[in-house]
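User: Design a sequence. Structure:
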């Protein structure tokens, strides 16, 4: 493919399609970390939800039942993580890494046992989540620019894509304009002061983990039921860690975090688009260098923003009630 064939419009559409994986996981991490719990287990919850969603969708031929099953397993893991980190005061980093490693192997073993296809599920076919076609899409498809915006940039995506973008104002409202959001931020900043004010710190943190489990399940379901159409070992491919990076980029605020997810989605789309492109005076860029793009961006973001980002003050600190 020559440089002249480079399609910026395709990159924008791919960005919209790539971002929900990170958005769901980042919003999940936002709830957990705003309450004071480091959520390194995003990757593991995504993998578990991706596998269970794909397996149930394949068995029932119903993607919505797959999504519900994914919510169930992700919430169960989040509550287990909460039991270790909140109730038992365990090391939150170790608990998260342990969950990730366990589920990386466990999902592969169970998939191999059930389906005998090298640790993946069969293709979902009609059990994949369909794209939504807006009314009048065919009528405006031929109109320059407007037709592309209406049918491809805004329209033509699955329900989970629209849910991901709708979550941004909802999460902002919950976090900053509800009593639950006030309690959540209070226990993440100063749990002892929150406890003195009558807030149940452990219950608030468990509620945050419940929200994180639900939201992270959508990320896993999106990977298997929308993007791929099957489950494959380690298909999350580090997206859980990229979501945490987006949290740092967004300074633990919903809108800025979503912009960070869009940025990573853009570079992931750019990586696919420029693969095989012949650049004038340069030629083809090696595929291995192209695959490095999202991770190089991650390092740059972390190096440039870690000093400027202000995390919740009590993040990673187990709460021990004063007597």
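Assistant: Done.
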């Amino acid at each position: 493919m020559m440089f002249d064939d480079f399609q910026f419009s395709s990159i924008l559409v791919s960005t919209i399609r790539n971002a929900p994986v990170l958005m769901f996981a980042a919003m999940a991490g936002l709830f957990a970390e705003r309450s004071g719990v480091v959520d390194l287990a995003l990757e593991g919850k995504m993998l578990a939800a991706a596998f269970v969603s794909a397996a149930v969708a394949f068995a029932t031929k119903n993607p919505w039942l797959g999504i519900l099953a994914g919510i169930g397993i992700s919430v169960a893991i989040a509550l287990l993580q909460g039991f270790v980190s909140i109730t038992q005061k365990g090391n939150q980093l170790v608990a998260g890494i342990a969950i990730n490693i366990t589920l990386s192997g466990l999902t592969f073993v169970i998939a191999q046992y059930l389906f005998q296809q090298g640790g993946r599920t069969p293709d979902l076919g009609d059990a994949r989540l369909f794209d939504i076609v807006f009314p009048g899409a065919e009528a405006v498809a031929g109109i320059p620019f407007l037709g592309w915006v209406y049918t491809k940039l805004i329209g033509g995506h699955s329900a989970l894509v629209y849910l991901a973008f709708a979550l941004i104002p909802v999460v902002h409202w919950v976090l900053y304009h509800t009593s639950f959001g006030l309690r959540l931020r209070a226990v993440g900043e100063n749990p002892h002061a929150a406890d003195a004010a009558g807030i149940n710190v452990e219950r608030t943190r468990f509620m945050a983990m419940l929200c994180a489990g639900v939201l992270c399940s959508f990320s896993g379901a999106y990977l298997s039921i929308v993007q791929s159409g099957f489950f494959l070992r380690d298909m999350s491919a580090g997206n859980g860690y990229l979501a945490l990076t987006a949290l740092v980029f967004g300074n633990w605020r919903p809108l800025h975090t979503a912009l960070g997810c869009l940025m990573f989605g853009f570079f992931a789309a750019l990586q696919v688009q420029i693969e095989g492109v012949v650049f004038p005076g340069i030629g083809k860029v090696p595929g291995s260098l192209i695959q490095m793009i999202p991770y190089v961006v991650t390092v740059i973001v972390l190096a440039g923003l870690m000093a400027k980002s202000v995390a919740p003050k009590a993040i990673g600190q187990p709460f021990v009630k004063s007597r």
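The longest strand covers residues 278-279. The beta strands are 278-279, 283-284.
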